[in-house]
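Weekly structure sync, notes
Attendees: PL (lead), two postdocs, one rotation student
Agenda item 3: pending single-chain targets
PL asked that the sequence for the first pending target be pasted directly into the notes so everyone works from the same version. It is reproduced below exactly as submitted, 67 residues in total.
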Amino acid sequence: FREAGPPYDDRLAEAVQVVRDACRADGRWRRSQPYPGRYWWALEPAGPSRWATLRALRVLRWADSEQ
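Predicted structure, written out during the meeting:
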């Protein structure tokens, strides 16, 4: 929704709060559970995810600037 460009809508508040609540005590977000099956390589090790953190911070920065 952030990338689509429409203005902030109050109906997004619950989804934004889910993102906020998923933040760990150290200020980072966990990586999502990998899909079952075989992988050729792991994109990230278990634990905090730099990519999930980057995406979450982008969403929160957008939400905070639009409200």
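Discussion points:
- The chain has a mean pLDDT of 88.
- Helices lie at 13-21, 50-66.
Action: rotation student to compare against the earlier draft before next sync.
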